[in-house]
Every structure is written in structure tokens, then in C-alpha cells.
Amino acid sequence: xxxxxxxxxxxxxxxxxxxxxxxLCFWGIGDIPFLSVNEARRAVSARxxxxxxxWLLPYMNGELYLTKPPLFNWLTLLPTQLLGAATEWTxxxxxxxxxxASCAVVYGLGRHLGGRxxxxxxxxxxxxxxxxxxxxxxxxxxxxxxxxxxxxxxAAWPYLFGQGGRRWVLLSxxxxxxxxxxxxxxxxxxxxxxxxxFAFLRQPxxxxxxxxxxxxxxxxxxxxxxxxxVSLQLGxxxxxxxxxxxxxxxxxxxxxxxxxxxxxxxxxxxxxxxWLVLLVRPRQLWQQIRARAELLLxxxxxxxxxxxxxxxxxxxxxxxxxxxxxxxxxxxxxxxxVLDTLQGWRRKLMTWLPPALLLAFVVxxxxxxxxxxxxxxxxxxxxxxxxxxxxxxxxxSLGIPDMRLVYYAGxxxxxLTVDEVEARVGEEGLLFAREPLPEPLAGLANCTQAxxxxxxxxKKSALLIRLGPTCRAAP
Length: 475
Fold this sequence. Notes:
By secondary structure, the protein is of the alpha/beta class. It folds into two domains: 3-372, no CATH class; 379-467. The protein has helices at residues 11-26, 37-52, 71-83, 88-114, 116-127, 130-135, 142-161, 166-183, 192-200, 204-210, 213-234, 239-252, 262-270, 282-291, 293-311, 324-339, 344-372, 374-377, 379-387, 403-409, 418-424; strands at 59-60, 63-64, 395-398, 413-416, 429-434, 448-452, 462-467. Helix 1 runs parallel beside helix 17, helix 15 (293-311) packs across helix 16 (324-339) and helix 19 packs across helix 20. The longest helix has 29 residues, at 344-372. The radius of gyration is 25 Å and the shape is globular. The relative contact order is 0.11.
């Protein structure tokens, strides 16, 4: 390592980076209500599992929910059981822990590849990332999958590049089995598929890894246990709908998807401005990747998922999140090599830009996130307080309910059409409806018990209406 780079790799600097990463992952994660529909879906499913004591079959809003395996729910249930209640903190804790673990693993791999400086910059580039930092603080499964995929790769590393024995292979496959319990077979795109490509590049240890029969049996035993138990209880046909919706439609659905290069734009946005370093001496980086097996495997871990997901019709930035640690490691490797060639203000800029951006992310999430998303948050605790006065009343929603409503209502919310509301208007119950009310139900506004504005979006509002014999819609 060049002597001029020691400042950014010293112990005080490393301690400061560690402190910022810990703050990024944990500061205030229980203070903000659930911000997205997906986050609320995971929360509702986990809470209903906790309240029912039924850990095998997940339910969401009272309906069977088999779209995602239950490992994330099980992980959230551990702190929930200890505290006796499902809260924002208990439901987001697994994501925060796996995010911290991912940064630690990236630091360790980076240090192995090129020294302490590479490890520190890899951890900072990963943490100071819009997508990664967001999911580090959300009750969603993507960070759990990211952490487990990375740990599976880490377990395979001693066998692939060192003198590690078969026990590392079994550990890696066991972690792959946990990945299967997190998001199903798609996880193989982040572990098995890159290693398959790596094996084709004349890497005999990778071929030996993939040919491990005990390893695959371990992964299938762990990852397939839940699927087998559900199938024995409900029948094998239960998976046909899940297969059609979650795999067939997403791979080649009839609806027009985004352009094939959408994931390149997602990566550029999340890794800005760090990816700009790729414009400096890109040929040199490519030569280094080809010359060093560890870098070549990291490149496979990025390019294979990127290629496959780009072919899918359904595209979301979060789908590629498990590849982000490998991207961070490659960027950090090149970042430090470019840094060593610079002097003056350019050197200072590249040295301090990553920690400065990491600090900015910490400040945003700790101090400003709630203000920026106030329009999404304001109504949620108000809903909780308003419904506390009607603990036994059935709750309905005009149209499909938002899962954030279901979570903060603390009970199932049945979806009704306009005709069904008109048929039930004389029965006791509570109706949640967005404004403006449809014309046939306009008279129900006189029975409003609470109004929430803004409701999840700016300039949007909703009403809580008490149905019953005294409430009649105007003709």
C-alpha cells in the first residue's frame, strides 16, 4: 500500500466508519411507522403469525399468504417473542443486523483482496448507497437475502481460494438453503449461478464445489423443508398460483416491462457518484479482473444476476440488491488504485468523499427522514388512535385496503365494493374510504368519525365512517 494512503486506513478512521455504519443501520429504526406497502405486508404477515402462534402457514390480512417463504417472519418473531409485541423495531431488526453483517463481510473480503484500505472503502461504498441504506432500515426480505447470499459466498471462499476443506462447502450450501427459505429458488442467481459461470472459466475448485452431492442435499433439506411441510398439509396444487404469479408473470408477463438497461440505471443511481471511477482506466481494471481469480468471481456475482434480471419483464431495483456487495468490492478495488496515483485536491476529494457521503446518509435517516416522508407517516398513528375507541367493530375498506392501514388498524380489513357497502350500511361496522366518496355513497360522509389528511400521499385524504342503523347514504 502506498504510504500516502495510510491516513484513510488508520485505526481512528476505521472506528469512525464503524460508528457511522452502526448508526446508519440502527438509529431510530423503531421511531418511524412503516413507509411502504411491501414493508407493511411483511409486518402484517409476521404479526398475524405471532398472534396466532401458527409458524408454518403465513397469513396476511386473514388470508393464506404463500408467495414468500417464512424465514424473514421467523427472524422477526425472535425479538417479538422476547418483547411480547410486534413493533416497528422488532420487525426491522433482522434487516439492520444483516446490513451490518454485510458491511463487515465486505470489509473482511476487501481487506483480504487488497488491504485494510480496500476493505474500508468497500464498506463505505456499500453503506453510502441509496438502495442498500434504505433496505437496511426496512422490514423487507431483500436485506436478509443479501446478507445470507453474501455469507454463503464467504463460507465458500476458503475452499475456492485457499486450503479450506469440505466443511466450508457444506456451510456454504447450508446458508444457500436459508436463502431458499427467504425468497425461494431466485436466490440461486446470486450464489450458484455466479459459481457456475466461474467454473466455466476453468476454475476446478468451483466445479468441485458445484458437484458436491452432500452440499446440494444439505441445501435442499434446509430450503425445501417448509415447502414439503406445506405441501403435505395443503396439497401440491397449492403452488400453481404462486408459480404463475411470482415466476412466470415476472419472467415473461404480457404487460410491458421497463427497458432492458433499466438495471444499469438503477445501479448508476444507487452507486452514484462512485461508479464514475470506472471511467478512469477501465482497461486496467478489466485486466486485473481477468488476472485475479477472486476479482473474476466478484465480476460473475455482478454480471450474471444483472444479465438474467435484465431479461425479466418485471423489473425492480431491489431485486438486484444481493449483488451490491460484489459491486462495492470491485469499485473499492479500483477506487484505491486510482487514489494511489493522485495528488493534491483530487486525492483529498477521493479520500474523503466516501466518508462524507456516509455521514450524509446517517444524518438524513436520523434527522430528516421523518420530515421528508411526513405525508406518508402522519395518518398512521392517527388511525391507530381513532380505532382504539372501537375495539370490537368489524373494519371494512372501500376497495383493496393498503397494508399500512391493516397493520395500524390492528385487525383484518375486509375489502368491499360500492354495492356491498350499500348492502351493509345498516349493519354495525367501520368503513375506511379515500376521498372523494363515490356518488352513491356521498351521504355516508355525515357519519364520519375521523378524517385523515394527508393520507399516504400529498393532497390525499381518507375517512373513517361508522356504519349502522343511524347512518344512511343519501338517495
